[in-house]
Amino acid sequence: MKKIAVFVDVQNIYYTTRQAYGRQFNYRQLWHALSQMGEVVTAYAYAIRRDDDQQIKFQDALRHIGFTVKLKPYIQRADGSTKGDWDVGIAIDVMEAAPDVDTVVLLSGDGDFDLLMNKIRARYQTEALVFGVPALSANSLVNSVDRFIPIDDSLLL
What we know:
- The protein is of the alpha/beta class.
- It has six helices and eight strands, in the order βααβαβββαβαβαβ.
- Strands 3-2-1-6-7-8 form a six-stranded parallel β-sheet, sandwiched between helices.
- Strand 7, helix 6 and strand 8 form a beta-alpha-beta unit.
- It is globular and about 45 Å long.
């Protein structure tokens, strides 16, 4: 049975599914689909800590499904802009997990991850999969993986 490591860029998935479909992503259905592919041995969901009840319930639901939730504080700058990027943290965790699994699954459409996915494929011969919203996923990311799996109705609430 294949060993699978899963890494979810929660903010990216939230905003892209909302923008493209006006709907939310179904993490339970994702877990079911991944379980059909092999054994999920590592599963991280990277999110922003906002400490409102809705976010806390969502994060608890992710934990109940089987994800380890990693949180960064929500930072609002004086100019009104916000900060909460997990790209480096995701990259570090992927590089640490890749030698020990058969498949790395990334949920994001962010083209910044294309180098990472190319690297794990070349260095560790690890299969690389990306789940993303087709219209909002960077071509460079789609082209860097063994398989791009479009987020469609079957993965939405």
